[in-house]
Specification:
7 strands; mainly alpha
Length: 328
């Protein structure tokens, strides 16, 4: 009498609700001590207290096929068949995670396909840890969302063969349930929108590094490996000549001879650009010839006088500016 299903219970999947558990496992549950002592004369109201005392989940374990308290309470719920509202409250309970697991597995056994997706899919957002006892009697760690995934996708959970349910895609095509949007897709959409906003902000307002890089590029030539090499003697001599020319240009008076010639030249009918282009090659050739001549003079005469050096430097500067050279 104690192991019979209640009289007013409805059949599930066309059979007795207790028959959803295999006969061997069901017989072992009837013979275990927990079923005889804790589950005897248990009602739907007292089921809550027993569910709150659960410390782990699991099916059967050991060589003698011993049932866990979790599967014993599942069979007791199939026997007394509590109302749907009580099962829904089990699932929505956030304080006791094993009570939620008990209600979720019972809903998967007796509920319709729509009810399973409706009440169990929100539990994907529950990431609490659970203890589960395997067949060897050892405890392992899983999470609530993993347990819900096993309930909805696997054929056997806690050594109970789960009834078949319709695929979610088929229910979506018939508009019985709405398409499911995962939390990962929502996070990806938020990340994409934030990336687009950052890209738009960067287009309208360049970063400080970009400004510093532009300022550095305009005011300072880029540093390359060829510029880092040690300068040759000819290059050092050329730098000395340019420094001396700069000193002469700074010390020269505004109304000097070079300025008068420069103004006279720019008042001519030829433009500055054409004149500079014409004398550019002549100035380079003149510099090259002066360098070779200076080497010869240094080798033969032993050096040039101070006046000749000043005239030569002035001519080099005038050649760069596109001005005719001074005659000695």
């Amino acid at each position: 009498m104690a192991n019979r299903t209640v009289k007013d219970a409805h059949s599930v999947k066309g059979t007795n609700p207790q028959y959803l558990v295999e006969k061997i496992i069901r017989t072992r549950i009837y013979e275990c001590r927990y079923w005889k002592e804790e589950c005897f004369a248990l009602t739907a109201e007292l089921m809550v207290d027993k569910a709150m005392e659960l410390k782990y989940i699991g099916g059967i374990y050991g060589g003698n096929v011993k049932p866990t308290p979790f599967i014993c309470l599942i069979l007791k719920m199939l026997q007394i068949q509590p109302e749907k509202d009580i099962v829904v409250e089990f699932i929505k309970n956030e304080d006791f995670k094993y009570v939620r697991c008990l209600g979720a597995l019972y809903m998967r056994l007796v509920g319709t396909s729509i009810d399973c997706y409706k009440y169990l899919e929100p539990l994907y957002y529950d990431y609490r840890k659970l203890k589960r006892q395997n067949k060897e009697g050892q405890f392992e760690l899983i999470h609530m969302d993993e347990f819900i995934e096993e309930i909805l996708s696997e054929e056997r959970v806690c050594d109970i063969i789960l009834p078949r349910i319709q695929k979610r895609l088929a229910l979506e095509e018939t508009n019985q349930i709405e398409p499911r949007v995962s939390a990962l897709e929502e996070d990806m959409d938020e990340m994409d929108s934030s990336d687009e906003e950052e890209a738009m902000d960067q287009k309208h307002s360049p970063s400080p590094d970009y400004r510093r890089g532009g300022y550095r590029d305009t005011d300072k030539p880029p540093t390359s490996p060829k510029h880092r090499r040690s300068p040759s003697p000819h290059r050092r001599e050329k730098k000395k000549r340019s420094r001396s020319r700069d000193r002469d240009r700074r010390h020269r008076s505004p109304g000097g001879k070079s300025q008068a010639l420069f103004l006279r030249h720019h008042r001519s009918h030829r433009s500055k650009r054409e004149h500079r282009d014409r004398h550019r090659d002549e100035g380079r050739h003149h510099d090259r010839r002066d360098r070779h001549g200076r080497r010869d003079r240094h080798g033969k005469d032993g050096g040039m006088s101070k006046e000749q050096m000043e005239i030569q430097e002035a001519n080099e500067m005038r050649a760069r500016l596109g001005i005719p050279p001074l005659r000695p």
